[in-house]
Amino acid sequence: MLLLSVTVVIVSFGLTRSQAADDTGTIKEFKQSVSPEEYQRRYKEFYGNFTEQMAEEGNPADFMVDDGKVLFNKVAGTKGKSCASCHKDDGKDLVGAATRFPKYDASIKGIKTVALQINMCRKKNMGAKPMKYQSYDQLALVLYVKSLSNGMPINVSIDGPARPFYEKGKAFYYKRMGQLNFSCAVCHVKYAGYKARANLISNNRHHADHWPSYRLKWGKTGSLQRRFRGCMKNMRAKPLAYQSELYRDMELYLTNISNGLPIEVPGFRM
Amino acid sequence: MPKGIGRIKIRIPRKIKKGAVIPVKALITHPMETGFRKNKKTGKKIPAYYINDVNVYYGDKLITHCDWTIAVSANPFMSFYVKADKAAPLKIVWKDIKGGVYEKTVQITPE
Amino acid sequence: MSKKETNLKISRRQFMRSTGLGLACAAALMSGALPGLLGKAYAKGTKSANDAAGAESIKKVLRKYFGDRKIENSHVNLKLPIIAENGAVVPIKIQSDLPMDNNNYVKKVYIFVEGNLNPYTAAIDLSPANGKADLAMRIKMRKTSNVRVVLETSKGKLYGAVKSVKVTIGGCGG
Lengths: 270, 111, 174
Description:
Low-confidence stretches of chain C: 1-6, 31-50
Low-confidence stretches of chain A: 14-24
Oligomer: heterotrimer
Largest sheet of chain C: 7 strands, mixed
Number of domains of chain C: 2
Structural class of chain A: mainly alpha
Strand content of chain C: 25-35%
Shape of chain C: extended
Number of helices of chain A: 12
């Protein structure tokens, strides 16, 4: 009995070690447990189409898109400019721009998201204070900018200078962490379509294409990184700060998985 | 008033036949705070703040009234029916416990 | 088999009859299909969501609003998810074929969530101008329990429906 328990401990230790992300090399990806289509089928079977109906009835986040448009035209900062001063006609030149985010930016030697880009613009071109992440105004502005690309296929690049950051993002996605020793990939790739208690674990194909999203659990709208933080807390791991480097890298990794899918913001989720 | 409270969306069918019983879908943004939640940082209770009274007017007649409690979900949605027998405005008025009054009117024009 | 032992033994036929009858009665009681007990069946609700404490308090609430008036378990269709993905937002749809004429219409719709600390959730006053007594809303549920609706007509009659909704502790999403 003692020998058996010892063996179990050694084997499980060995297993966890082997699945630990190797920060220097490439990660061996898990095989998806179920296809995205099979996951959708299981979702409908388990939860019905109640959430879909509620989304169709009306998304409270739609008001934020309108508010974002107003903010886009509002002057802010020391230079007397608004976003529309450079991006004329309510940002006509930004149609399609969000499909290429997150992307590499040489000036920060890293990956920038739409949220970070907005704050970078404000600082550099407008002399305006950065917006607080997850504040109503900040989310409204991100929603407006992203909504200009609604329906257009996501098309992020992971080549060239973006590559090492993409790999870092993937490593973080596969890294086991926290008191429960989970990684994002264990649930959302390996065991997607199965249940964690009474929740059906979602497949990650669509994870990046509908943020910011209204979430019924929050009763509010939030960003993908807010969801990252929530997930990490659920894993009993310490969440990172908004727009920290690893979150931006991981956002690139996840968005690449949604390449080809249309942007649809604001989302409506449980 | 904090941002994003009292934003209203009312949907009625585009084509309305005279005398038809039509669905009306109304959504209003409001936190519908129960008064049971605690602020995670301060530990203090977040005070109750919710819509408790809804009135629906068709023309100048009150046709529907609702009494809501904290058990109605945040950003409350409601769908009900109206017999569209006349061309008249449909006005919905929501009132919350802090005295906030929110209203919106849509025009019912039967063909 | 001596004569002294026969009063303890029953024939196989007798045993099958009495057990069968007992089982049939139990099954009938559990399904609530016995006629004339419509009122009681309504108050009992679905067995799976009934714990003693919950049933007691809903009886008190129903008495507070409706006294001893009989609530007919008919003419009302209640649509709710079997499992609520999130107890904070449970969509409820109420449909009824009861008339909405000037002399006979549904004047009030009550919604109760048994598992909530205060089961009274909302009440909607309707008028003939509504044309139909159909409604939809989103309600909060503290835990797995019954959701009940009661429709009161202008003639003072009561009709109701009950449905059980599971509210679960999510693994991660909830």
